[in-house]
Amino acid sequence: MLTSLWTLALAASPHAAPPPPSVCPSIFISPVTVTVKNERGLVLGTAATGSGASRSPSNTLKVSFQKGADGRYTVTASKRWYRPTTVRNVRVQESRCGPVNPPHLTLTLRPRPDAPLIRDFQIRSTRGDGSGSWPAWTSYRVFLDAPASVGRAVTWHSSRPEVATIDRLGVLRTKCLKTLQTTVITATLKADPTQKATARYSTGSARIDCRKARGQ
């Protein structure tokens, strides 16, 4: 009798469902990420395995990642006017879904004895208006790799102010143009006027309504 009741109880109780299979995230997680700085702590760039260094085309920063047979990484950073630096035996813990708590390294580059006072001078875009409305604007800044004694102030110039103007703070504003036009933006370092950085900016479209500016 007891056996029959136990059998009925087992039949009536729901079976425990197997746990659902774990789903790995669809985003790519880089096994190793790197921030490269110079001897003064200035960030020269960032990099990650699979994506290379984050930099502008004129930048000479290079970061390489080599994975050994033991699964450990060797990371090397180099840049013009600097001695290369290498970190070896970077261990990355991995699960079925990829890296677990991937390491972030900070590599410091030190200048070569023959490095000039100003090692790098570039124009970089920080933010802008990508709505396609008129007038559009873009904010520029300069990247200067030089000792702190070198002033950071620059003068801005647009080669074609009828295409776009740029003010003393580096804010570019476009004119309303029905055809694609290009201007060259130049930043001149006040501390050394021989140091110039340039960037090209294009604007204009037949779809722009030039009858009034946005917000008016």
From TrEMBL:
Q: Which InterPro entries match?
A: Invasin/intimin_cell_adhesion
The domain of life for this entry's organism is Bacteria
Q: Which residues form the signal peptide?
A: 1-16
Keywords recorded for this protein, A-Z: Signal
Under which name does UniProt file this protein?
BIG2 domain-containing protein
Source lineage: Bacteria, Thermotogati, Deinococcota, Deinococci, Deinococcales
